[in-house]
Write a structure and sequence with these properties.
It is a single chain. The chain has nine helices and eight strands. The protein has helices at 8-15, 19-28, 44-56, 79-82, 97-110, 117-130, 190-201, 206-212, 216-237, and strands spanning 5-6, 34-36, 39-43, 88-89, 134-136, 139-142, 156-166, 176-183. 44% of the residues lie in helices and 16% in strands. Residues 55-66 have low confidence and may be disordered. The protein is an alpha/beta fold. A five-stranded mixed sheet has the order 4-7-8-6-5, with helices on both faces. Strands 1-3-2 form a three-stranded antiparallel sheet.
Length: 238
Amino acid sequence: MEDRLMTAREVASYLRLNERTVLKLAAQGPLPAVRVGNQWRFRKATIDAWLDDQMLGSGGREVEMPPFRHSAVPWLLELDKCLAPEHILPSLGSESKNAVIEELAQHAAALGLVRDKRWFVGALIERENVMPTAVGNGVAFLHTLRRHPEQIVRPFIVLGRSQGGVDFDALDGLPTRLFFVLGLRYQELHVPWLTKLVQMLAQGGVTTDLLAAPDGEAMYQVLAAAERRLLEPRAASA
C-alpha cells in the first residue's frame, strides 16, 4: 500500500485497534497525527515507522500511553531533577535539522550531561532516521533509539527554541520551534517523561508562553508552573 493520508477509522482497521483507542493515542501524542478541523489525519508511512519504533522498543512496550502518574521513583520524574534554566537554549542559531541536533548535543556535552558528544549526535540522528520526532504543533521530542546508561551521566532534558522555526519533517508540515532532548539512562523513564511533557504542553497557553518567554529562566518557570498544575489533582486527592 502506497503512502497516503488515512482516517482514524482506516488506522484503527490497519492496526486492529478500537477507533476510540486510535483517537486517544492521537490526542495524547504517541501516535503521530495532525488535526484538520475536527478530524484526525494520519500518514501511512509515518504510522509504519511508528510501528517499527514500537517493535524496536524505543517507544515503550505499551501501545497506549497512560495518564501521567508518579512512579515508584518520583524524584526521577520531577522537572528540577532533569531540567534547569541553564539546560535551555532560548535562541538556537541552527537552521537545519542536523545542525539543530549538533547544537543541542554540544550543549548537553558542555554541561557534562553526556560523556561523548559525537556518540550523542549520531544516536539522535539514528533515531530521526527511523521516524522524525517532531510531533507537530511546533514541538519535537528528541531521544536516542536505545538507552545507553554508560553514555548518559544522569537523566536530563535539554530544551532549545528556534525563533524562526526549522524544518524537522513534522507531520503537519510546519516548522518546529521547540526541541526537547530526553537524555534518559533508563528505558522505564521514556514513556512516563514523554507522557508528562505532552500533558504539560497540552495545557492552554503553555506552548505560546514558552515561545514568548524572554529567556531560559522564564521558559523554565513556564514549565515549572505547568508541572505544578499537572500535579494539583493528585495532591488534592491525597
